[in-house]
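Hey, can you fold this one?
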Amino acid sequence: MTMFRFKQFTIEQDRCAMKVGTDGVLLGAWVSLRPSDCRLLDVGTGTGVIALMLAQRAPQAEVTAIDIDEACAVQARGNADRSAWRARITVCCAPVQDYRTGLSFDLLVSNPPYYDRSLLPPDAGRTTARHAVSLDSAGLLAAADRLLAPEGRMALVLPPPEAERFRAQAAGRFALQRRTDVWTTPRSGVRRCLLEFVRDGMPVGEPAADRLVIEEAPNHFTEEYKLLTRDFYLKF
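Sure. Predicted structure:
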């Protein structure tokens, strides 16, 4: 599928190895947004879908989307330009480790590469998008530490083992504030973890934790999933 239509924007994705998927849509719909969040950063934007979701949800915010892959950055820019929020979205082609700006961000989101212990696929684009070759957890944490405002937050979507490793690596710099475990079906077990962090030392208490089930049966989506994504998916 080279084009994916949402309710308020359209994603062309023929130049990107990783297409629009549930992970990114979940993160874009789930992450909390405060009225005071004025500068948002999407790391590894790919098609730009999360950046566009953030722009739709936060009309007060400027969104910066960065990707190391030039083809993805070009496609994300095109997708942003066709949207109603093109004036509020900036797209940069750069590794986040090298990204420098005089601004600090209120929120960093990323659907990051995470299969750092699995066999690499033959396709170079998918390798960059889905393996910690160009961006590992340490690199992402260092970038977040450098780019986020003092009260800034970071939100990610990861498989359960990588989520636990990332939380352990973040200790001392970032504390988990919120977590949702995503189950494909009521019996599937946890398939993904949606995580939201604040800087260590911010008052968070016990992290808020809950569960999201996507389907009760094949193509029978739960009400909680429809409620979360209904502002975006045409089918809801």
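Confidence is low (pLDDT under 50) at residues 115-133. Let me know if you want another pass with a different chain boundary.
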